[in-house]
Amino acid sequence: MASRLVPNVTSKEGESQCKEKHAVLLSPVGKLEISGCETGLHEIKLPKMSVLPSGAESSAACEVCEGAEEMTEPLKQCTAWLRAYFCEPARTASLPVPAFHHPLLRRDSFTRQVLWTLLRDVKFGEAVSYKQLADLAGNSRAARAVGGAMRSNPIPIIIPCHRVICSSGQTGNYGGGNLMKEWLLSHEKLQKEKLAY
After folding, report:
1. What's the first-to-final CA gap in the chain, in angstroms?
2. Would you say 43 and 49 are in contact if contact means Cβ atoms under 8 Å apart?
3. Catalytic amino acids?
4. What does residue 23 show for φ and ψ, rounded to 5 degrees?
5. Predicted confidence band at 8 (pLDDT cuts at 50, 70, 90)?
6. Could you tell me where the DSSP H helices lie in the chain?
7. pTM of the prediction?
8. What is the spatial distance between Cα 133 and Cα 58, in angstroms, rounded to a whole number?
9. Taking CA atoms, which of 39, 102, 151, 168 is between 20 and 30 Å from 131?
10. Residues 38-73: tens digit of each pLDDT
């Protein structure tokens, strides 16, 4: 169970350049560009949203529209996890989180600690302030550093930086744009309410 909460991050010295593969997942929030290698997931790039998806678009099935034939195991795990997130959120708890293979997540740093803490401790449908996350990560005075960690998160949605909000209750900024952050928070709240009934 612990392996699901904290994905593997490889860090072999002298490791050769990895062979990066790409896939594009058509999702309710637009095209998500996913990259990774055999070792793990490198990055999820979010589209910028200019309008919120309507009801029909937001319930659209997620499907890989580019790169399906060359997907590595971590890319397959990532697309399965994202499909579940958007279409069947209750399944995400039973799916493995793909291994991560991004330099930021391989270095021992406060940013890495914050991202692992966020992934492990802030569950679907919950929100936490920058200050609360700093507390959880072990440095109560590092709310600004938490903001920096959120900005540099290479694996948004899976590492749920959208769940970090301002102490005032304002949503704060987001790499995919504020509309996407609002949509993701609203999606989680709605799905959590459905599961409660």
Report:
1. 27
2. no
3. 161
4. -145, 155
5. very low
6. 2-5, 55-58, 73-87, 103-106, 110-121, 130-136, 143-151, 178-196
7. 0.86
8. 29
9. 102
10. 999 999 999 987 676 665 445 556 888 877 788 999
